[in-house]
Specification:
The structure is a homodimer of 203-residue chains. Chain A is mainly α and 203 residues long. The first copy, chain A, is 69% helix and 0% strand. The radius of gyration of chain A is 19 Å and the shape is elongated.
Chain lengths: 203, 203
């Protein structure tokens, strides 16, 4: 769901400059910002250190090298993207229909959804030419699809039907967040209801 | 449709090096490759000139500046992406059902579809932070959606229903090309049939 609320807050040093005590998470946030604003090639230790107003050397307290940072960035995105959907499932109790409706509304959750979708899109673009990123994106898609499938299994569909419906719902979510400019507010509302109604038909 | 066959062939000078006679299209192809392999920030006149084995100066025979190149790159992508769908419509004659099936099969058209989807994804990522790119992407999405809607109007749906069905089909196409790794060949086939069957139900 390029349209979740697993967004990353802006990178700010944990303490005031001059006496900064950066955590690995600070570096990962800064790297994620550069990935979205520029590209993965622009994610370089010197660029990040300059942005965070610290020396290059302090980077190596937390990471072996740039590759280690990229790995941790992906892992951090994967965990946020996965946990966030698991949490929704646990909060929702036993009502799969409410959960389908909630998932369909995710792309419309304002700035957080937008930022989160921008991060995800940048990672997907990177994954077109990097195996490590590709693997993590595939893993996240697979996990989300498998969770969404469970809703439809709970609604009484067999595994195959549930998987197909999950794919349609997930596709819809990705596309709404990719195409925020398409249609009026009313049209977006109508197509959401259309998708929900279709997917929630009793088997 | 991040999954079309409007792909761009690799950039090669029109004649042998030493006596190169580059066209604007050569520069645009080279720029598109760099956009996909690196990022829009890496699309710089000096980098392209080096890759094409010509002097920077020859760039200015064709383009006012880098911005002019980027504008023409977007225009070229937009035209390819739009023409390609219009051509399908004209070739298909009067059979909207066959056209829906053809559109649903587009993401599975091999390497050309993959390359084309990679270009589109890179442009979408760029469009998250650039208004000029954003406008062109919105325009392409709108045009494709309006063509796809026509299929459903021809099948007897009213405009509103046709628009919603077009959105679902287009979402499906984008997502299949984004998530090539998801599911087995059989599962991909099943979900394609599922989407077609649903969308082609007589009104």
């Amino acid at each position: 769901m390029s349209a979740t609320d697993a967004s990353t807050p802006p990178a700010t040093p944990s303490t005031t400059p001059g006496k900064v005590q950066l955590t690995p998470a600070d570096w990962i946030r800064a790297a994620t910002e550069v990935l979205v604003d520029k590209s993965i090639d622009a994610v370089r230790v010197d660029v990040l250190a300059k942005g965070l107003k610290v020396t290059r050397g302090s980077f190596y307290w937390h990471f072996q090298d740039r590759d280690d940072l990229l790995k941790q960035l992906l892992r951090s995105w994967r965990d946020a993207a996965t946990e966030q959907i698991i949490n929704r499932f646990e909060r929702s109790g036993a009502d799969p229909e409410a959960l389908v409706r909630e998932l369909a509304s995710l792309p419309f959750r304002g700035t957080a959804a937008f930022n989160s979708a921008s991060i995800e899109l940048a990672i997907r673009a990177w994954a077109r030419r990097d195996d490590m990123a590709r693997q993590v994106v595939d893993e996240v898609d697979a996990k989300r699809l498998s969770y969404v499938s469970q809703c439809f299994v709970a609604l009484g569909y067999n595994f195959q039907e549930a998987g197909m419906r999950a794919f349609v719902l997930y596709s819809y979510m990705i596309s709404e967040s990719l195409m925020r400019g398409q249609g009026t507010e009313t049209q977006r509302q109508q197509r959401r209801e259309f998708v929900e109604k279709f997917l929630l038909q009793k088997p």
